[in-house]
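Notes to self, Membrane protein:
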Amino acid sequence: MDPVSHALVGAAVGSLAPGPAAFWAAVAGSVVPDADIVVRWVAGEAAYLDHHRGATHSPLGAAVLGSAVAAAAQALWPGSGFGRVLFWAVLGFYSHVLLDLTNAYGTQALWPWSRRRYAWDWTSVIDGPVLALGALHLAMRTVAPARGALWGGLTLAALAVYLGLRAAAHGKAVAAVRRHAPAARRVSVVPAFLRLDRWRYVAEDDRGYLTGWVLGPGRKVGEPQVLVRREDAVVGASLAAPAVQVLRRFSRHPHAEWRRDGDGYLVRWWDVRWGAGPIPPFAAEVVLDPALKLVDDRLIAGPGRLRDGVRFVYEEWGRPV
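result:
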């Protein structure tokens, strides 16, 4: 989830803590798991996609990063007690991990024992109600700071109710898709970026993927687009590209399409969870020569052109089911 949401929820956790050291330890603990952003700066987008929400979101990360936060808090507030601030730093840390688990990106919460990306698919990476609840808590804490623990507790309770409602809505959407596509061996349903009443579904069968929308309280399942799995020599040659290997490790439903590009081939891979075409947030692009040898590859993060961004918003918000 976005860093602002993490910090706001961390502040709600910290409002239950005694004293400023524990409060700020919880806030810092709630944002420090995303310290792995340095991987993007040092090693590039592909390495970041491969390692984000890995070690820094694991129990090992909780121990190392929580201890660092606690040490910093103890230095700023001498006598605050290392064990006490460590406790609140770790609570903030796990508020971050919990929020990340609720969306579709995937979190390696059991690293290094498992590289599996756990994702519950309930919320968006930027989720309006989570932001609103966190902002409301901050406003109430500012107006009546003496009741900070009350506001923090109410905010966390409201957040738990909201996440429970999203979990229930997700379960109903999954059930609707399974009724609509009974032959599917695997189904994913992820929330639209901008709408609470809209879910994108992917139903995977032996031929490829069916993808479309589930809309409204009635869980209306729209007619799908069909993506036929391609397993030809061009797609096979692209599998050697490092960017494709990273994307496939990240993806739940990887899919490839290709076209002729001069004398060679241009292959694009993406995760069908994000749409029927290689639009945000990630795609891998591979250039092959006429002999199917790798010429170039790259990972594309976000819309490369304005029209891609406009298309993404249209897909998420306005496209009829």
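- The mean pLDDT is 92.
- The chain has three domains: 3-166, 180-226, 230-318.
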